[in-house]
Amino acid sequence: MPRLLKLGCTFAITALCLQPAKAQAPLADLAPTAAAQPATTNSIKPTPQSYISRFEMFAAPSYMTSPKLNLVQRGLNANFLINVNRWLGVGADYTDLSGRSDVVPQELTPALQNLLSASVPAGTVIAVPYKSSARAFGVGPQVHFRFLHRATFFIRPAGGMLHESITLSPDNPLTAALVGQIVPSHQKSDLTIFYGGGGGVDLNVSKHVGVRVAADFVHYRLFNDLLATGQNSVRLSLAPIFRFGGNVR
């Protein structure tokens, strides 16, 4: 029986080897169709923007956070820009924000912390509520990247003047007495320089209208006689941007 199985396998292999080969398809039939051919580089090449407006105007709800002070401020950010050429613009930026938080001893200067330690029993929790309002004005360049038709990316330095006002609102006799020693009027304001940088993207909805998403990081120092260190803040803005004027070449 094994010998018969061996002879059968040999006969099957021989028969398969002796079968005539199938005719190969012509080379023309093997060529990819137009739909299957890879796209040319021209079809996927980014389309640059053809219209660059001379002027741009932007006004948006804005949000700024200062983590070291546990302070969040909301308000308005407005910007007006003149495009000098296709990649460089010069603009003016205005921000008006307000918010609420609490002053705690850890944020104060060492001298004030020593005063509190001598005046307040150990373990007493101190937090003084306050209302803050900030106005900032800056002027500077903005660099654009316009290699896509539907999106304009930009970066910019941030620098200018910041005016901050606070109104302290002590909510118990202890904090009222302390505030009376440190800030008798319960109000304080300061003017300082801020600096940093930012950027974002304009999504080009049409020739004259887009949607801007922007973020800016800035550093500044306020109330040197009250706060121990400078502050870092991040401002976020989102709103339509409007373009008008002749085409910049």
Key terms for this structure?
single chain; 249 residues; alpha+beta; Porin; 8-stranded antiparallel barrel; 5 helices; 8 strands; elongated; disordered N terminus
> What class, by secondary structure content?
alpha+beta
- Note the main sheet: 8 strands, antiparallel, barrel
Can you tell me the CATH topology? Porin
CATH level 1 name: Mainly Beta
Question: Would you give an account of this structure?
Answer:
Strand 4 and strand 5 (151-168) form a beta hairpin. The protein has one domain: Porin (Beta Barrel), CATH 2.40.160. It has 5 helices and 8 strands; from the N terminus they run H-H-H-E-E-E-H-E-E-H-E-E-E. Mean pLDDT is 85; it is low at 1-44. The protein is of the alpha+beta class and 249 residues long. It starts with a helix and ends with a strand.
Topology:
Blueprint: H1 2-17, H2 27-30, H3 41-44, E1 53-66, E2 71-83, E3 88-103, H4 110-119, E4 128-145, E5 151-168, H5 173-182, E6 187-204, E7 209-220, E8 231-247
Short description:
The chain has 249 residues and is an alpha+beta fold.
